[in-house]
Amino acid sequence: MKRFLNPCRRHHQNLSLLAAGALSEREENQVQDHLRECSPCRLYFQEIKTVTDPLANWAETLPQFQPSESARASWAKVIRAAGRPEPVRRLAPAVAFRDWAHEVFWPWRRVWAGVAAAWLVILAGNVSLRDPAPAITAKSAAPSQEAIASFRDQQKMLAELLPDHSAPRDAERQKFFSPKPRTERFRVFAV
After folding, report:
1. What is the distance between the alpha carbons of residues 116 and 102, in angstroms, rounded to a whole number?
2. What is d(CA 77, CA 52) in angstroms, rounded to the nearest whole number?
3. CA 100, 106, 107, 109: dihedral to nearest 10 degrees?
């Protein structure tokens, strides 16, 4: 889609290579033909040429610099030091663990903090939803003989006061389970 909107886009690389003098003769002729026809590409080529001309002639325009003897000596010292192997230092377990933890946790510290927060929420939910009844029954002492006798007396009094609802009475059973005749279910109207 971009080529249709900007058909000269494919020529920009060739224009840069032409300004640097890195094209073959056949390609250079093709690019020169395009430059004769296209004014935006001519403008682009002139902008590229203003940058590449000073860079191409840098050896003529800039004087040759030579580093001083002290600079050469310091470079040689740095190069020799880089070539020497460093002694392997033994790390204490605490330092090794700290370095490992820093490498593992620090890049993803926000992710680890989120995971820790989620686990804290889960832990808080489990603690708050725990049933306290087993803990209370385990801590309470066994009921005394007096309390057991009192409970039995109260149970007997309640049994005398309340009717026995464990078994349905015969009348209720008959009323509940007896089917009605069809004539009683529907009212028939004679016309």
Report:
1. 17
2. 37
3. 130
Instruction: Give whole-number Cα distances, 87 to 84, 90, 96, in Å.
Output: 9, 10, 17
Identify the CA nearest to 15 among candidates 50, 52, 44. Answer: 44
pLDDT (tens digit per residue) in 36-78: 888 888 888 898 888 887 777 776 776 677 778 898 899 888 8
What is the secondary structure of 65-99 as a DSSP string?
Answer: ----HHHHHHHHHHHHHHHSPPPPPPPPHHHHHHH
At 179 the three-state DSSP class reads coil
Are 80 and 47 contacting, i.e. CB atoms less than 8 angstroms apart?
A: no
The string of pLDDT tens digits covering residues 15-43 is 888 888 888 888 888 888 888 888 888 88
pLDDT at position 1, please? 41
Dist. CA 168–CA 79, nearest whole Å? 106
Which burial class, exposed, middle or buried, applies to 89 when counting CB atoms under 10 A from its CB (0-12, 13-18, 19+)?
exposed
The Cα 43–Cα 15 span in angstroms is 11
Give CA–CA dist 151/145, Å, rounded: 10
Q: Which domains does the chain have, with CATH numbers?
A: 2-58 (1.10.10)
